Structures are given as C-alpha cells and as structure tokens.
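Supplementary notes for students who missed Thursday's class. We covered one full example, reproduced here. Read the sequence, then the structure, then the short commentary at the end.
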Amino acid sequence: MVTVSRISDPDEIKKVLPVISSAWGMPNLAAAFKDTINAMRFHGGLVCAAYDGGEMVGMQFSFPGFRRGKTYLYSHMTGIIEKKKYSGIGYHLKMFQKKWALENGYDLIAWTFDPIRSLNAHFNLNKLGAITRTLVPNFYGTMEDSLNAGIPTDRVVAEWWIKEKSMIPEGDNSVVLDVSKQNFNLQIEEITSFQPKVVKVAIPYDITSIMSNDLAKAARIKMSLSVVLTRLFSLQYSVVDFEKSQPSSWYVLSTDPPLKSGNLPNPFV
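Structure (token representation):
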C-alpha cells in the first residue's frame, strides 16, 4: 500500500534526489536546481547577480516565506566566486536585495547562518544590522562539503528587519561566557539564576583552523555553542551585536527589545 506523508527530516530529503533523477531522466541534478531557481523567480522570488566586466562573480536568490502568520523574503543563497571573496560584492548584493524587498512590500528578510563562523556573524549582525533569537538544530542534516563535513549543521536564523534598526545595549556590565572552555555549564546556571541584562558569548575567531587540526574539538565547540544559544534564547535573550577580534570574538545578547520599535514577534520559534 502506498502512503504519502510530509518530510521534515533533512536527511530524509536526500532520498528525494534519486527519485527526481529517475522521474525526469536527469543524471546531473544541476539542471533540476536551475529549474527550481527559475520557478522561484517566476513565482515571486528574486534572482540577481553581480558582474565584473562581463564575468558573473556573485549571485543571490531568495523566495517568499511564510511562518506563524508572517510573510517575509527568505534569502536562501548568496555566493561569491573564490577569487572575489571579501571584496564587498556580497554587501552590494544584499543592498540590491533590500531595495527590491522594500519595493515589493517586504519588511523582513531572513536566512540561516552557521553561528560558529565569526566572519559570517560579523557580516550579518554588524554590517547589515540583522538580529537572531532562534537556533535550529541539524538544519541541513548531514553535509559532506568542505565547510561542514564532520560537524553538526545547527544554524541560527538571521532576521533582517529592513525598516528597523537593531538596538545595541548600553553599559559595560555583562557576563562573558566562552564555549571553548569546560566551565560554561556552570556559567549557564548562574545566568539562569540572576539573568543579567547583557551576556557575551565568546567563540573562536577561526574555527576552520581548529577543524583542520582537531575536528573532534571543533565539533565539541560547535555543540557547546548550540547548547548555550538555545538556553539563552529560551530566557528571551536576543543576539543584537557581534564583536570581531582575535583569537576570540563575542556575540552580544540582551534581554532588552532588540529593535528600535520594540520586540516584534519572532516567526521562527
């Protein structure tokens, strides 16, 4: 007997791919990916690219999302070719996306990013002004690419309220917690007890080097960060800032409303 059910496990989604390949006779699924992006574009999404002369050097695509009564633009992928990374192209793509979103009636753009990667956090939180208050465990399931192989694919959801301004907490009184250390569980219990207004969570500046030298250690740090952020988010903390430095960088979380107009409902919990 044939049954039909909704798939929610990201690893189960992998089994969809050979079915697509068989049904459409596509040994190379790049064609199916292209068709999917084109369909998203036609049905209300955005596909844009950055060019250097005649060469395409960056791309971005997004599509409408809907959760808990909130419609937003979901920014699925922004990528720059290797030789042009860290040249400002990604920022130009996001500014184009913001302008398009405003023209098409959106006030929120959302995407996920790996919270253990400090450069991503700096770009999303500092340069763009996004906030985050949601962690999704195992968002992509098992991945085998060079950036993710061997570590959990936990992700935080970036909320870019494009008509708003994120609020940075005032004052220097804060608790600092380092997920690379072994005593963070005790610190979490202390934070739970008296809930300081501001908590700073330290992460390694360069997780890639740690992955290259000790993958198990990198995985432990990543899992510790997920435990810490999940607990802080449950206590109504939001990430509103990121302090980039070496050898450690810091997430800045606050219990104050994260946006100028107040604490807008979180559609991703």
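Commentary. Strands lie at 46-52, 55-67, 70-80, 108-113, 135-136, 155-161, 175-178, 198-204, 238-243, 248-254. The chain is about 35% helix and 25% strand. If anything here is unclear, bring it to office hours.
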